[in-house]
Amino acid sequence: MRAFQVTSFDTPPALETVEKPTPKAGQILVKIHACGLNFADLLMIKGTYQDTPIPPFVSGLETAGVVEALGPDTNGPALGTRVAVFGGQGGLAEYGCFPAERAVPLPDDMSFEDAAAFQIAYGTSHVALQNRARLQPNETLLVLGAAGGVGLTAVEIGKLMGARVIACARGAEKLAIAKQAGADHLIDAQTEDIREVVKSLGGADVVYDPVGGSQWKDAFRAANPDARLLPIGFASGEVPQIPANHMLVKNLSVLGVYWGGYLQYKPQIITDSLSELFDWYSQGKLTPHISHVLPLEDTAKGLELLRTRKSTGKVVITPNG
Fold first, then answer.
1. Rounded to two decimals, what is the model's pTM?
2. How high is the pLDDT of residue 76?
3. Least crowded by CB within 10 Å, which of 31, 154, 205, 257?
4. Tens digit of each residue's pLDDT (9 = 90 or more) over 151-206
5. 4: left (phi > 0), else alpha (psi -120 to 50), else beta?
6. Is the pLDDT of residue 13 over 90?
7. How open is the CA angle 193-198-202, to the nearest 5 degrees?
8. 75: buried, middle or exposed (CB in 10 Å: 19+, 13-18, 0-12)?
C-alpha cells in the first residue's frame, strides 16, 4: 500500500510503498477514505510534538474510512461499518490499524471528508469551551486564528453556546469566513490593534488561542477580570508565555487544553462530547469548512498550506478517494 512515511526527523517525509498492516488483538483494519491534516502533523514530522512516535511511522492523526478486518479476539464495529478514528498516527495511508475502542460509527449523512475534518477540531473546541472554560451565554469569547482548523469551530460552537464572539484572523477573506460561521465582531490581525479593539468592545471573558506569540500577549492584556484563557496551540511558532503577576492582579485563569490527553485518563469526556457534536451535525447546526481536498500524493502540498497559513478550516487528504 502507499503511505506518507516519516523515516527520520532530519529528512522530509515521503510517499512510499509499504506492507499493508495486519490488525493485532484489540485493533481494527480500516480502509482509509479521508485523513484530516492538523498543525500537530507539522510538529510530529519534526519530532517536536508531545506524542511523537519513534521513526519510522506514518503521520496523520485523524481518519475516516470503512472497517475491513478485526484483530484476534477483538470486539469492534462490524465489517463494512463507516467509522472515524483518532489514531494519533497512521492516517496518511491507504490502510491503517487502530485501537477498536477509538472507532466512532459515522452518522449516515456524514461524508468521509467531513468526518476526517471533524473530531480534533470540533472536539478540541467543544471540550475547551464547555469543560475547561465553562463558557456562559452572553459572555464575550475572543477567538484568535478564527479561520483556521480549530479556530473556526470555536466560532461556531461559541455561538451555539450563546456567547458574543469576536473573531481575529488575517485579511478580509479569512474574516469573511469567520463572519459566515457566526462571528459578531471581526478583527484583522494584519492591520488592527487586537488589544485596543477588544477593549473597545468591552474586553474578553474567554480567550481561545491556537496562535500564541504576540497575539496571545495582546489578548491577555484585553482579558476582563476573572477571564479564562485557553492556550490551544502555537501556530505562530512562539509558545505563549504567562505573566503571573498580571494573572494574579486580574484573577485570571489559564487553562491548558489537550483534547487527545483525555483519551488516556477520562475517555468518557471525549465520548460524551463527540456524541453531542455528531447530534449537532445531524441537526444541521455544524458545517465543517474544508478549503482543500487533496490526493495522497499531494500530502506535502497540504502540509505546506497549513505551514504558510494559506488554508482555511481544514485540509483533507483522500488516500482512497
1. 0.91
2. 85
3. 31
4. 999 999 999 999 999 999 999 999 999 999 999 999 999 999 999 999 999 999 99
5. beta
6. yes
7. 150
8. exposed
